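Records of this kind hold a single protein each, on a pair of labelled lines. With that in mind, the following record should read easily:
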Amino acid sequence: MEPSSSRHRKVAIALDIGLRRTVAEIESILGYTFRNKSLLVEAITHGSYAGHPSYQRLEFVGDAVLGLAVSHYLYERYPDIGSGDLTALRRANVSNEKLSRVAVRFGLYRFLRRNSPGLDQAVSEFTDIVTMEEEEDDGRISFGGSILKARAVLADMVESIAAAVYWDCDSNLKVVWKIFSKILTPIITLETMKEQPVAALNMLCQKRGKALEFRSSSFGSSCTVSAFVDGKAMGTGTARQMEIAKLNAARDALPKLSGVESVSFDDDDVDAGQNLHKQRLYTYCGKKRWMKPLYKIDKEEGPAHNKKFICSVTVGSEHSKITRCGDPEPKVRYAENSAARHMLSNLQPDEERQPPRIVSALQLALELSKVFFDSE
């Protein structure tokens, strides 16, 4: 039996003007010109488009191709880490969430040949949510979005296009990776990947001998999950899928569990909760509709074998920003977390000690303005 690649090369598709334009646009995005255009046409054909081969078979191959290409890259980049970390990194970089956002970023869905109004609505809903985010949060997309679960059709498109490239270039994995290392940017690395929030919260509670319980409820199309630690509500998450709501509840609880108790971490705890204050600051800025926190290494001190890093973080709006520095730390991610802690302390100095105050929108605006103007 002939391999799929050979069979495809014998297929000739008469492309109309519109389809030729579509193929050319995708080739421009990829930076790759197909010898056999029929492969790409099949890769962008949904099962609802009757009378034409769908991308399902290519998607099956593309899933394996991207997994192997990413595995090869990670194996060479991290020669000293174990298979568990390599597996987690590969999973994060080829997850449905990651690939769906890649499809949104490049507008791939507009090229899909389909006949499914329901699918259009679902993808539009997810696309609207993703495009409202200023930048991708690698730690968040590793395990699921904040509101709506990714649409599988978008990830399927990326995988099927990867398979089309793979067959068209005679199964040359180097060619595939040259193209998709750019498409998948930013690559989630060991330095940027955060722990799965639910697993991290479980670990933190186990280390401190605390009981963790998740309680869920739903109303209409909205699901709410609350994380209880020793019977006390520590975090709440809402989303349209229960799975995402639980992730959000854990994300909400992690920084609170750390901040309220003011516990000194041992090394294992720091590794488990190294981004707690960064996560909290990210959430805070999101609620204020500010820019995503911007971190920078300000200073390196000490000898090479005992180097310390000092990082700063900047938050605010386009027209008014505030910057705070953290303490010297042995790792950059710890230094960033320290900077986030100092920033939160500045923005919310009495939040943990005083009962919440009821203030008017004008009072709140004046208080925030004072913080910014005093810092300049």
Residues 56-77 form the longest helix (22 residues). Strands lie at 212-219, 222-229, 232-239, 294-301, 308-316, 321-325. The two ends are 72 Å apart (CA to CA).
